Amino acid sequence: MAMSDETMTGGASGSAKAAPVPKGRAAAAGGKSTLGQAVFVILLLGALALPFIFKNFTIFQMTMLMVYAIAILGLNLLTGINGQFSLGHGAFYAVGAYTAAIMMENLGIGYVWTLPVAGILCFVVGFLFGLPALRLEGIYLALATFALAVATPQFLKLTPFEHWTGGVQGIVIIKPDAPFGLDAVLNADQWLYFFTLAVGLFLYWLARNLVRSRTGRALMAIRDNPIAARSMGVNTSVYKATAFGISAMFTGIAGCLGAIVIQFVAPDSFTFALSVAILVGLVIGGVGWLPGALLGAAFIVFIPNVAEEISKGLAGAFYGFFLIAVIYLAPQGAGGLLRALVAKLGR
Asked: Any transmembrane segments, and where (predicted)?
């Protein structure tokens, strides 16, 4: 952990004042902040205008892009911020999706209320899973989460749960219309796009503040040096389990939104391939860089379609080629590539 300016410049008596920040450095920091705000405003304006420009299928794709971005954001909090590796986030996505489907179709509850319930339920499941996983690290933790991802679809097919989950046939969800008379202006796809956008912005704000908070600093300290963090009084067990819970909460909310948008859930929709896709999005976007979730989600939504357009028979091969090319050209993901470009332009 880096020392503050006051700590670095203070004298032996503690009365020395901190050295002033150089004007060039302050101007550069201010310029980066202004540039980031300008980019955010431009992207937000483009996102607000998009549903009125493109057709429903493109709107559906962009909505799913935001859904996957939320799931990648949740995994980034666990892996990028806390340093725990997971191959099982597809299981938390499935829990959130089935929570929405059961509440909407079996219990007749409005879709808005499914989001907090899915978030709380997935937080509890993630926290409870994180407790026994505290003794596992590295590849052993990866294997435990892999087992979770593989077992979840099989549990959803079990006969005792078939009344709720629909078994192998799944559950069909009715797409909600825009409320408050907005259905006269927005169709169902446009409304779900704006609804997902609002939820995504709120969760991104929540994740950003979490990373900058005392809890976020503790999570990063555990990632960088768990022994030093423990010696400084950080309860590593509680923080690591909490990180699992928060990460699962984000991914569960993403699954809830995905079920509402797709209008269907079934066990075979949440195989291990989904967990791999979320992990791929994390690597492509940049591990530890929160805005990279959007770029990673764009990769897993659009690149398979591009590969299929090139060759339907070799779509998997072309997808793998694109993935290897991106990893080779940007080994630290989109975040590392952008930081390198900014540093180069700054010089």
From this structure: 35-53, 59-78, 85-104, 110-131, 138-156, 190-207, 241-266, 272-302, 314-331
Name the percent of the chain lying above pLDDT 70. Answer: 89
Distance of CA 207 to the CA centre of its chain: 9
Collect all residues with Cβ–Cβ distance below 8 Å to 203 and sequence separation of at least 6.
70, 73, 250, 253
Helix, strand or coil, per DSSP, at residue 265 = strand
Q: What is the dihedral of CA 173, 174, 179, 183, to 10 degrees?
A: 140
Distances in whole angstroms, Cα of residue 17 to Cα of each of 11, 34, 152: 8, 29, 58
CB 175, CB 263: distance < 8 Å: yes
171 vs 151: CA distance, rounded Å: 19
Angle at 122 between CA 99 and CA 120, to 5 degrees: 85
**Torsion sign across C-alpha atoms 323, 32, 70, 187:** negative
- Taking the CA atoms of the chain, what radius of gyration do you get in angstroms? 22
298-299-304 Cα angle (round to 5): 115
Residue 41 CA from chain centroid, whole number: 21
208, 250 in Cβ contact below 8 A?
Answer: no
- Long-range pairs, 303-308, Cβ under 8 A, ≥24: none
Confidence band of 17 (pLDDT split at 50, 70, 90): very low
| β-sheet bridge partners, residue 172 | 264
pTM of the entire predicted model: 0.88
Encode pLDDT of 224-257 as tens digits. 988 888 888 888 889 999 999 999 999 999 999 9
> How far apart, in Å, are the Cα atoms of 183 and each of 5, 113, 191, 192, 344?
55, 20, 8, 11, 48
User: Three-state SS string across 44-64, please?
Assistant: HHHHHHHHHCCCHHHHHHHHH
What per-residue string of b and e applies to 218-232 under the rule 16 or more CB within 10 Å gives b? bbbbbbeebeebeee
| Residues forming beta bridges with residue 264, ordered by sequence position | 172
